Amino acid sequence: MFVTRPVTLSRTLTRFAATPSSSLASSSTAFAARLKKSTNITGLDVSTSPLAELESRFSKTLSLLTTLPESSVYRQATTALTQQRLDVVAKFSKQADAVKTNAEQLESLYRQAEEELDAGQLEQVLEQAVAEYRLAAKMVGWKA
């Protein structure tokens, strides 16, 4: 019979993954309102500032992954994918800052980012990023 002990760090990281960043709340108000009204996916709401949210989530995931051993295959694969996605998001985020008051141009940038990421809608990519962060937090807990 296995005796399990609670991993406080893992639970804290999991709770942290579910809460939005306070810095996103202030940055999202500076952008024009989204023209997109629905993702057409039940239960998946339209994000008000998807690029900022993705950039924040990817950065947090990369930071968390550095706590895993460098030889970890999970760390290597996840770091490569997350860094590639972060680079794409950062590129479009800079462009979005330049046109943040023009909703049509913003939507166009969001569509271009979706095409370049090739992983569905930005809201779906955000869900994937949150799930990856939660898994990374569990991996850190399991390592301990």
Automatic annotation (TrEMBL):
Location (main, coarse): mitochondrion
InterPro entries: NDUFA5 (IPR006806)
Keyword hit for Plastid: no
One GO-annotated biological process of the protein: respiratory electron transport chain
Keyword Transferase belongs to the record: no
Membrane disposition: Peripheral membrane protein
Pfam families hit by this protein: ETC_C1_NDUFA5 (PF04716)
Annotated coiled-coil segments of the chain: 89-123
Location of this chain's protein in the cell: Mitochondrion inner membrane
Cellular component GO terms held in the UniProt record: mitochondrial inner membrane
Keywords assigned by UniProt, alphabetized: Coiled coil, Electron transport, Membrane, Mitochondrion, Mitochondrion inner membrane, Respiratory chain, Transport
Similarity comment: Belongs to the complex I NDUFA5 subunit family.
Protein name, as recorded: Uncharacterized protein
